[in-house]
Amino acid sequence: MTHPRIRPLLAMACMLATAASATAAAADRDDGAMLGFSRTAATAQQSLEQRFDAQLDPAELRGWLKQMASQPNQVGSPHDKANAEFMLAKFREWGWDAHIETFSVLYPTPKKVALELLGPNPYTAALHEPAVAGDTTSDLAGVLPPYNVYGADGDVSAPLVYANYGMPDDYKELARRGIDVRGKIVITRYGGGWRGLKPKLAQEHGAIGCLIYSDPRDDGYAQGETYPQGGWRPAQGVQRGSVADMQLYPGDPLTPGIGSTPGAKRLALKDAKTILKIPVLPISYADATPLLQALRGPTAPASWRGALPLTYRVGPSASKVHLTVLSDWSQKPVYDVIAMLKGATAPDQWVVRGNHHDGWTFGAWDPLSGNVTLMAEAKAIGGLVKQGWRPQRTLVYASWDGEEPGLLGSTEWAEAHASELQQKAVLYLNSDTNGRGFLDAGGSHSLQHLVNQAADGVTDPETHVSVRERLRAHMLVDGSSKDAKPEAKAIAKLAAEGGDVPIQALGSGSDYSAFLEHLGIASLNLGFGGEDDDAGIYHSRYDSFDHYARFGDPDFGYGVALAKVAGHIMLRTADAEVLPLRFGDFSDTLDRYVGELHKLVDDTRKATEQQHKLLDSHAFALDADPTRPVAAPARDSDMPAIDLAPLDQAAKRLRQSAQAYQAAYARHAAGPDLPAARQQQLNQLIGSMEQTLTDPAGLPGRNWFKHFIYAPGMLTGYGVKTVPGVREAIEARRWDEANHYAALTAKVLDRYRAQLDRLTMLLDKQS
Amino acid sequence: MTHPRIRPLLAMACMLATAASATAAAADRDDGAMLGFSRTAATAQQSLEQRFDAQLDPAELRGWLKQMASQPNQVGSPHDKANAEFMLAKFREWGWDAHIETFSVLYPTPKKVALELLGPNPYTAALHEPAVAGDTTSDLAGVLPPYNVYGADGDVSAPLVYANYGMPDDYKELARRGIDVRGKIVITRYGGGWRGLKPKLAQEHGAIGCLIYSDPRDDGYAQGETYPQGGWRPAQGVQRGSVADMQLYPGDPLTPGIGSTPGAKRLALKDAKTILKIPVLPISYADATPLLQALRGPTAPASWRGALPLTYRVGPSASKVHLTVLSDWSQKPVYDVIAMLKGATAPDQWVVRGNHHDGWTFGAWDPLSGNVTLMAEAKAIGGLVKQGWRPQRTLVYASWDGEEPGLLGSTEWAEAHASELQQKAVLYLNSDTNGRGFLDAGGSHSLQHLVNQAADGVTDPETHVSVRERLRAHMLVDGSSKDAKPEAKAIAKLAAEGGDVPIQALGSGSDYSAFLEHLGIASLNLGFGGEDDDAGIYHSRYDSFDHYARFGDPDFGYGVALAKVAGHIMLRTADAEVLPLRFGDFSDTLDRYVGELHKLVDDTRKATEQQHKLLDSHAFALDADPTRPVAAPARDSDMPAIDLAPLDQAAKRLRQSAQAYQAAYARHAAGPDLPAARQQQLNQLIGSMEQTLTDPAGLPGRNWFKHFIYAPGMLTGYGVKTVPGVREAIEARRWDEANHYAALTAKVLDRYRAQLDRLTMLLDKQS
């Protein structure tokens, strides 16, 4: 489900200028030794990793991908179940204790979708993705027609309004042009923010239906040759996808917070808050063009214009558009494949790995390119076991079902096993789509050094430097371009310090959400990308083996590279004497986030003052062209003092505690091993550190989300908001809430610090 | 010729952050009194202006425009001559001493132009602008086929390469993609820099031909509905224009520096440095589309992509393109209409006003919309004379011919009368295209306060505030948008100070060049625009009365507004007791420019260091996608110390002298009148102040340009470069030249300061 092309940008939103000094500090901390291992153990671990690597065979990844992408594999399809059973057999063959865990979820599927333009120049949308030459699966039956799951049923006719990306600022621009979407059908284009926000915001503004089309500027011919000549989206290609309000909670809309087991108590459909009230339909630009041509009214703002050969207007259209969406709202099964390898000395510490196996059509890119790397890891680990190795901690490899509609398989499993996971899970490592390019690593920042050490030990297939150094080069070049965004410049500055490269904070968009944001388990999301052309077929019928083999990772070199980076992290976490987390990196990152919040407050205040000045001087009215009237913006609320002092102090205290832990860890590393009992106690506490960043009260208006540092943005969807309670309150100008959550978040950080101090004591205590 | 839509941007390039304090200083200087007048004289002047305004009749402007745009009026056309004679008769009828001054200039006109794509999918370009419904002149004969005057004759066949806007950075991007244009035909799109630079740079890079097309993103359907439904460029519309190398010298290519009178010594054609050596042709996007579709090679960088429904590639094309341009290189006559009104007390001080009358086709927008305001002023002034008024100084009203091919009429006249003009001319006020919107004022900054006072006294037809306050609102809103450029923010900051709004520095693009940049006469360029749609028909067959009456200035309210602003400035300059220049405004502006140069040096040094770091770490190579290789950029030269201290000191001395003059002027204004002789001596010196900013040696490589503060950029064309000797040397990394011209410019500024001190003495000397 995750969209590689949009992830980096979103992630960059959590970088800052004060960063450089922080990394310098981190560099000081890095003695080059393998984190969590004594020198002797580290040597053994490296040879283990070499034996692991030796078993990775790109031909096998290719074979599994071709096989699993040979038929449509969306939730409820025969091949989806077949793929689960295929993996079950494989895991068992490789020596894992595996089973399939089934949940029953609400998963509507389209019974009738129709779209037509009425009036003098009527047009009936094809809503069909034709077979294309050379794509051998593109003519197969069993693919669901393009739709957005969890939109409402409806049969509506109304004039059309174009709302650009359909994000909040777009509605402000419409309002300034006197355009009201109440009672209208809104057409938006993909991009600029998460898909699900588009119909949600349209609904909140009073629209009765929503269309989402793929403009060729964003992933079609403007980007490159279209499929099958090139990899980009053809005229009839459509992006399917979920529009459930996953910012409230992901998973089965009827069972928030609990596993959707047979007996589970389910909400009535009408009470499911994550399901839309209006119909929504994704369409191709071939079908969108006649609709856009029917628009009247003001010319669209310059930044709203796509690459279609027409004058983009905001509307409304003179003729009405007629939209019909009817679905089968029955329950469907999802099949999670769970494979375990019991730990020798710490069986009750789990190291969990996941990737989903359900696709929207054939799912070659999304998700199978990532899923086959997980399979390759599992097979190689099985091979190590056959060679006599046993992990110290328990390894759990999971292939989730139902990720596409709303992280269903992973969320229901995590909810069903919540207390056990909070007791046992020390890491969740996720992957999803994978392709050629650069390592894209996000997650808990206490894991940043572990990721860097692993990335430093794996060679990039194209450049033959380490994947970390290639990523560093990418960050440096990205941040150096004349028109680089401040975030890209900040990242480049961090990368230029040498040592560790920053990892991103996680929002949502793949299966880590329940583990990180609901249960507070330290998590990572890894994948390669940036050189591939997946955007053009994302969630369309053309997400096929043939496309992937041409434009994804033709020799599966990046599949193997991901298996190495992820596999090494799993093995090190399984075998480390001291769990390989480094809390100073979290502290450094937190300092940056707090710095960002101060800047956000200052910038918001400046912008507010400026806007008020302009309004008071009637500048907007005087500037406006009377023949193309654009009204002044609505007056922003006045801004009181925002008190971030509690955060400043908590961050400062945490910095001191992190330094103390680091010193104690260094003394320990140089000294004798800890007594087994104390080491176990230590690892127990390290394993639950991330959970202290959660609070049962959760985030404002969405208490499924318990993590106080990382969350998907209410108004960005996949995009992360760090220190969300405070940041989103400021952005939404809810001033009291901002002050309240600054204090609450400080309390949470103090709990983290308190447990960190206990770790330090344990390390220092004389044996 | 000037292009209103691109002018503001260019002008903003000469603003800076240190600006605010400067304006504050200016505000202190402003006692509100009419500059150059005693209180009693000011009252009389205001009533004179009221009587002037009362005679301005929009219906007359409309009538003249319709009449003069009723036939093609390019140089050498019958109607061009007829328009000159029409104005001659009018000026005489209005009581002016008028005559037509004729020059004979080299003006090539096309005999044969042809363009075809060869190979398997051949295409022959139409090169024809069809008649459109409702545009009554669009089917008239006598319009020259679309061409770029002063391109070379040629008949060439070669593969095609796309070079975006054809600016220097674009060639760097091509080189990084391994694309060499030697022996190729280059196709560029209009925009991004002056037209004439495109073939010049193509030629310098070894291309054998150049095409320039209008992409619909820049002035076609992407901007709005096309003509005749809307005002924007239709599919077959073509932008004509000059490609003479006017950065070397404007005017007749065969007579640099002297008037092209019958007996004048002329260069041989081959020795004319401003004429291209390769053929060039402007085409429509209808004709460009098949050529762009024929391109192969790498996908064009994102910022290169226009609004055509295709994948923009850089090429080269598999098939060759065949381009033919053959011209008639004979001499043609240009008819300058010169009307004078002798001054009563200072006949040897001339106040000069000009606008050109030649167009590319019908010239309704460009230039007649400005020319009819000049006529309206002349008629109203004639009316004042009939009422018994006489100007104290001599008024010269000129309507130039041959501006479009290269400022021919104004340049030849200025060169022919150089010494007399340097003795007598105290102001040159230019206008050109005029339309709805905001006052666009550029010129010598010693005239900034005069312009502001005049703009403050004229009401905007749409908003009914003063045109100055509307311009201020525009600057404030422009600079407040999220994605405002730093220059726009700097301007907004200046405007927010209240008091005077900044005027722009002048580069080139209209008839002020010879007066300001060659002779050093204080100059202004005025016009309204920004709400009109002229870009879409600029220099095409559709620059017609019908288009202007719909999309330009339908009720001619802005024609009258321009006549008022320009007329009041002319009348005040003609009658002022002390010529209305304020040197503190120049000093404030110079301080900003010097600040910009310091920033330019710092930024260039930082960028150089960063680029060297990236190259040394092989970051570009590691970042590159091996399947879409982009090589590292060429290594920038190392940067030595740049010594701007001479400029800093000269600017500081000037500031002190300007303050002293200001104080002396204030004492004078409060005290008794100066004795007539001293006043005359004073005005003589004020009138020649701007000339002290010139140096006979001129600018590096182009000594026709004598002004050391304002010049058109060698690599921007119309776009100004302030303190050009220093700024362009730094930008081109010619370090020794930068240091050399910093010292030279300081000397020039000291001459200005020395004469300013003499003014102060004259004001202070006891009578």
The biggest beta sheet of chain A reads:
7 strands, mixed
According to CATH, the fold-level topology of the largest domain in chain A is Aminopeptidase
- Looking at how many chains there are and whether they match, the oligomeric state comes to homodimer
What is the C-alpha radius of gyration of chain A, as a whole number of Å? Answer: 26 Å
**What is the correct CATH architecture of the largest domain in chain A?**
3-Layer(aba) Sandwich
CATH superfamily of the largest domain in chain A: Zn peptidases
Strand content of chain A: 5-15%
The first-to-last residue Cα distance of chain A is 50 Å
Strand order of the largest sheet of chain A: 1-11-13-12-14-16-15
SS-based class of chain A = alpha/beta
Number of helices of chain A: 25
Helical amount of chain A: 40-55%
Mean pLDDT of chain A: 94
Family (chains A, B): Belongs to the peptidase M28 family. M28B subfamily.
Keywords (chains A, B): Hydrolase, Signal
Protein name (chains A, B): Folate hydrolase
Signal peptide (chains A, B): 1-26
Question: In brief, what are we looking at here?
Answer:
Chains A, B: This is Folate hydrolase. The structure is a homodimer. Chain A folds into three domains: about 45-105 and about 330-465 and about 505-580, Zn peptidases (Aminopeptidase); about 110-330, Glucose Oxidase, domain 1 (3-Layer(bba) Sandwich); about 585-765, Transcription Elongation Factor S-II, Chain A, CATH 1.20.930.
